[in-house]
Amino acid sequence: MTRIFLATLGTETNTFASFPTGLSQFRNYVWSEQGIAAIPPSHTSAPARTWVRLAQAAGWEVVEGLHARARPSGTVTRAAYEHMRDRILAQLAQAGPVDAVLLNLHGAMVAEGYDDCEGDFVSRVRQIAGPATRIGVILDPHAHVDHVLIDAADIVVILKTYPHVDYEERAEEVFDLVARAMAGKIEPVTAIFDCRCMGIFPLTRPGPMPGFMADLCAAEGRDGILSLSLNHGFPWADVPNAGAKMLAVADGDRAVAERAARKFGERFYDSRAEAALPFTPFDEAMAEAAVVGDKPLLLADLADQTGSGAPGDTTHILRALIEAGIRRAAIAIFWDPLAVGVCFDAGVGARFRMRIGGKFEPYSGPPLDAEAEVLLLRRDARQAQQTGSNSLALGDVAVIRVEGIEVLMATRRVGVFVPELFEDHGITIADKQVIAIKNLYKHTDVFAPLVRKQLYVAAPGTSNPNWHELPFRRLPRPMWPLDPDPLGRDRS
Ligand SMILES: [Zn+2]
């Protein structure tokens, strides 16, 4: 009987964030030693869930190891990474011989002493599983990928969407390719092309990306190509294997894989400037915020977006709105458990001088001291999600009014994913001049009908998009946009 082992291990590490990621951040997000079915469905659990379903349908025996994910944050502690890695390796060893290992990883986990956790982890999986076992890996496109991981695995497939909505399809793809390899029908070989660029490359905005991804998909399953993946790279990480990479998996023919990786990698490189999300300088964004329009302006403070490891407690935009005299504004979500606790003690209707934000790490910047009125308090609040996932826990929420501006604070570090978050907590969007959120891009499409314009603001913070200002030391160079034309193709 065919036996497979599967596990989940991942987070996205912002190496510029000074706060470490310990075991509790995994235990409090996605954590199961009793199989993936034991925890609520979510996008991060979807690959393992899909693999269990497909394996059971095929009549295979499934052995599940640990499933663990943490939200993006600072460097993972050595103890946490080694504990989870060694736990899964022990479970794999205990499982005995398996025909395949399927791993749901993120791809951008950095731990103390480990620049490349996935390369280290999958290499050790290979040592235990042996050369005949097929290893399939699914990654987020905001990953760091090099030959260590590619050589240790048989198949690496990366999500093709950003915002990410294709966890299930890509899991099915990994399963299908691994099953065919196990049956001896294909012999996957992978090539990797280093695109030498970094940035944020959404797929749902006009520009070259939608067409590029459509052509990528169309080229799969033809001319010996089994799978094509673009790794965007995660730009807030100072590691030697960072940057965008193109992966091509061919059937038995390395030259075919290399040609495809180069062809699509160069095409992506040539469109990099157009494909990258443009950022608005802080001052320009605040000038635009002063304009009164028929709908609100949306400011996405991506430098303090929790989705790429920032704390979510900087006060730069809140302070600038107050100083500009803008009163019809709302801002969310401040991660400030201390302030929320004080509001719960004070009660709804209380007015007092309080300290907001600016607490968690050096990049948090100064707090804001101001007169506040408590408008709403809610224990165990939740935020609805766009897709089939369960709603997201916010912890306890306090909404306050500061100088006319409504501020939503929570005890859990979460971004804004749906506009309903505001209305559900008593904040009207339609009558506002400015809505500010601590997000990068994921919210864009759902907010589009409600706002006159969206700006991706380069305020100060942990996830500063002014790449030139980040203290990179170990990033491979040349790397666009720090270096203008690393592959020397701009004039060709
Ligand atoms: Zn991602």
Structure in words:
The chain is an alpha/beta fold and 492 residues long. The protein has two domains: 3-275, no CATH class; 280-465, no CATH class. 28% of the residues lie in helices and 24% in strands. The chain is built from 14 helices and 18 strands. The chain has helices spanning 23-27, 46-57, 78-95, 117-129, 147-152, 167-182, 208-219, 254-270, 272-275, 282-289, 316-323, 337-346, 420-424, 444-447; strands at 3-10, 30-32, 61-69, 100-105, 134-139, 155-158, 188-194, 225-231, 245-251, 280-281, 297-301, 329-335, 351-356, 368-383, 392-402, 405-410, 434-437, 453-458. Strands 10-18-11-17-12-16-15-14-13 form a nine-stranded mixed beta sheet. Strands 2-3-1-4-5-6 form a six-stranded mixed beta sheet, sandwiched between helices. Helix 5 links the parallel strand 5 (134-139) and strand 6 (155-158). The structure holds zinc ion. Zinc ion binds at residues 140-142, 164.
Q: Count the strands?
A: 18
| Helix/strand structural class | alpha/beta
What small-molecule ligands were found?
zinc ion
In the predicted model, the low-confidence regions spanning at least 5 consecutive residues are: none
Shape: globular
Give me the side-by-side strand order of the main sheet.
10-18-11-17-12-16-15-14-13
The radius of gyration is 23 Å
The biggest sheet amounts to: 9 strands, mixed
Quickly count the domains: 2
Task: Give the rounded overall mean pLDDT.
Answer: 96
Classify the helix fraction into a percent range: 25-40%
Number of helices: 14
Q: Give the end-to-end Cα distance, rounded to a whole number of Å.
A: 55 Å
